[in-house]
Amino acid sequence: MSLTEKITLKLLNKLNPELAHNLVIKALALKLSPSITSYSAPSLNINVSGLNLENPIGLAAGFDKNAEAIDSLSKLGFGFLEIGGVTPLPQDGNPKPRLFRLQKDKAIINRFGFNNKGMKVIRSKLEHSLSKIPVGVNLGANKDSKNRIDDYSKVLLECGDFVDFATLNISSPNTSKLRELQEPDNLKLLLLQLEGVKKKLKKNIPIFVKISPDLKNQALVDLINVVTESKVDGIIATNTTISKVNLTSSAYNEIGGLSGEPLKDISTKMIAKISHLTDGSLPIIGVGGVSSAEDAYDKICAGASAIQLYTALVYEGFSVINKICIGVDKLLKADGHQKIRSAIGSKREKWL
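Now predict its structure.
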């Protein structure tokens, strides 16, 4: 991490968390991004459900909600980006304050509630993106929608032709009853409708389902059964957790989804379970608490084909992306892997 980045992070961490985040997005949108030479190595190349990635480290949804900073973000070393969540109609989200730093825990609690400018504004941003790496859209539903299943279909139809993949976000804890869409009957209806929408798009993009880390074993089994019987292309594991165990920061009891270090092992164990249940046949994108090469490699060895991060950027800055890529390359070679593909799930039993 450069001295400039250290100073910038220190200053940002003195500001209100949401204000600091908005300032970063504004700077990136104005192309005021740091100069970073991306790390590249053949060992890091991987194809995930048809997405050719130069490296497996992606940006998780929630960072660039309105697709305002895609072009700058695509030049910071990521292998892929996910924007959103996006809803059909613009909405303000939940009342402020709704973002809290837990610095002692290297974590964040948020209860944003799908605040975004709506699918038409975001479609325009996606349409004019110059990104040379894959970009995906996180599909959401409006809080007061009378038919949330229709909401997901509307966003996919509006934005699908301008992205490389889409994520079905049915696991955010910040929209009331949204997680009920993870129940088998609801999920079947949702996936069936989205399958019809996909056929209307100009290109066949992969669809991922983003799941909660709080699913009990039987609920996870039921969900996986539905997913494997459908035409879903992969799982993103996991969203934020509502569990608040062993936190030490003063904001530990704030309502919302917890991300960062405390989620790390929870999400890695979930990845291993999914990999075990599917015998490694379903691609998994691992997310939750990744801030080092070791964290990312653990998720790969548990069964993930690629990784996403967000909270680490708050505490480590954008230089963490290349730092992780360099470290993963070294860890692969130390274990005798020439490519990521052979490392996927290689230490799954450790996490079961």
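The chain has a mean pLDDT of 97.
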